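The instructor's notes for this session suggest beginning with a concrete chain rather than abstract definitions. Hand out the sequence below and ask the class to guess, before any prediction is shown, which regions might be ordered.
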Amino acid sequence: MGLMGRIDGRKMKILIATDGSSSSEAAVGLLCLIVTKARNTFIKVISVYEPPIMAVAAPYAAPAAHSPALEKEMKEFAENAVSRAKSTLNERLPDLNANLTAEVLSGSPAQQIVRQAEAWEADLVVVGSHGYGLLERVFLGSVSDHVANHAPCSVLIVRPRSSFS
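After discussion, reveal the predicted structure:
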C-alpha cells in the first residue's frame, strides 16, 4: 500500500493550494507521485488571490482605493493556476475523475487555505514553499509557515528546487 493508501479503506482528502509558481508546480508533481490509490483519494485544488488595495502616501489623503481591473487580473491568474494544476492531475492521475474539484477564492491566502482545510475536513494540505529567508518572511510573510502552524491536519511543504515531473 502506498503512502496515501488507507488500511481501513477510508477515503483520503487532500487539499492542494497553488499560486502558479514553480514551487506550486513542484507540489502538484510530488502529489502525483505519492497518490497511489486514486479511487479512494479526493483532491481539491484551490488558489487564493488577495484583492488589491491601493496604498495612500499622504496621511490626510483619501482612503485606499479598490482596483477592479487589477482584481480581475489577479482572479484570472488564480483561475489559470488552478486550471494548470487540475490539468496536470487529470493527465497523471486519470482515475481521479469526479474525485477532483477546484475552486478560486478571494482573501488572505494563508487564512483561506486553513479555512478550506477545516471546512472540507482535509486529511492533508499540500503547499509549495517559496524558500524565503528570515528577512523576506518578516516583510512578506510565509503562507506555508502559517498553514503548517494552523491547519487542522498534516501539511506537506514542497521546496521549489524539487522537481517531480
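Then share the key points. The radius of gyration is 17 Å. The beta strands are 12-17, 41-49, 53-54, 65-66, 100-106, 124-128, 154-158.
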